[in-house]
Amino acid sequence: MLKGKDVILAPLKREYIDKFLEWLNDPEVTQHLMRFRPLTREMEEDWFDSLKDREGDIIFAILINQNQLIGNCSIMNILWNDRVGTCGIFIGDKKEQGKGYGTEAMKLLLEYGFNTLNLNRIDLKVNDFNSRAIRCYQKIGFIEEGRMRQSCFRNGEYHDQLIMSILHSEWKGMNP
Ligand SMILES: CC(C)(COP(=O)(O)OP(=O)(O)OC[C@H]1O[C@@H](n2cnc3c(N)ncnc32)[C@H](O)[C@@H]1OP(=O)(O)O)[C@@H](O)C(=O)NCCC(=O)NCCS
After folding, report:
1. 163: left (phi over 0), alpha (psi -120 to 50) or beta
2. Nearest residue CA, atom 19 of ligand 1?
3. CA of 104 to the centre of ligand 1 (A)
4. Domains plus CATH for the chain?
5. CA-based Rg of the chain, rounded to a whole angstrom?
6. pTM confidence score
7. Residues 65-74: pLDDT tens digits?
8. Fewer C-beta within 10 Å: the chain N or C terminus?
9. Which residues are near ligand 1 (CB < 6 Å)?
10. Cα of 14 to ligand 1 centre, how many Å?
């Protein structure tokens, strides 16, 4: 368990599946994610069961007030030889968005990625219209390093996606 001021990153539990199902079937949330298929309980349970065998994917539940689930965050596709991973986050509980929890969760995730997993680079992809997420990542120190033109289709239109990353040396400079 990783504890911050207001946020805890905790292991996932099967009992969280109900909430994830609700959030990951909400178009307001999924327009920002890579998901578009309706998600069934069976699919979510299969995904949960598969986690124990996926050494390159690490996923945390995001909790506030000790045990209130608000979303999840992850470092996925870790390449242990290159020391690179790709992160993702969603605060599914919409009334808890915009309160600083996403930023705190990402900071805890980066600290874990750099200081425990010994990664050298953590990157992510974000839709260019997702201003809140971009602001959150910029605050933490992610740098925009590329733009994938018209790489996603949302709400009837093509959008660019930004590739952002942060290196261990940059993070250390900001968190001595
Ligand atoms: C993106 C997300 C993780 C951010 O977490 P959060 O807790 O909502 O955001 P925070 O409160 O920590 O920080 C948001 C920052 O963006 C700013 N912000 C909010 N709405 C904004 C907007 N429409 N445009 C620009 N900035 C905005 C806030 O003011 C804050 O910056 P500040 O601290 O300088 O004032 C969360 O909103 C979320 O999960 N959204 C839905 C799924 C998603 O987008 N996931 C990311 C996919 S790449």
Report:
1. beta
2. 132
3. 11
4. 2-174 (3.40.630.30)
5. 16
6. 0.97
7. 999 999 999 9
8. C
9. 29, 32-33, 71, 89-91, 97-103, 126, 130-133, 135-136, 139
10. 27
pLDDT digits (tens, 9 = 90+) for 109-131: 999 999 999 999 999 999 999 99
Q: Which atom of ligand 1 is nearest to the CA of 130?
A: 44
Cα of 166 vs centre of ligand 1, distance in Å, is 18
Query: What is the crossing angle of helices 131-140 and 101-115, to 10°?
Result: 50
Distance 96 CA to ligand 1 centre (A): 11
Give the C-alpha separation, 85 to 22, whole Å: 27
Q: Hey, which of 30, 136, 161, 165 would you mutate to test ligand 1's pocket, going by the most ligand atoms within 8 Å of its Cβ?
A: 136
Residue-wise DSSP of the chain = -EE-SSEEEEE--GGGHHHHHHHTT-HHHHTTSS--S---HHHHHHHHHHGGG-TT-EEEEEEETTTEEEEEEEEEEEETTTTEEEEEEEE--GGGTTSSHHHHHHHHHHHHHHHTS--SEEEEEEETT-HHHHHHHHHHT-EEEEEEEEEEEETTEEEEEEEEEEEHHHHHHH--
* Nearest residue to 18 (alpha-carbon basis) of 46, 37, 52, 41: 41
Residue 35 is predicted with a pLDDT of 85
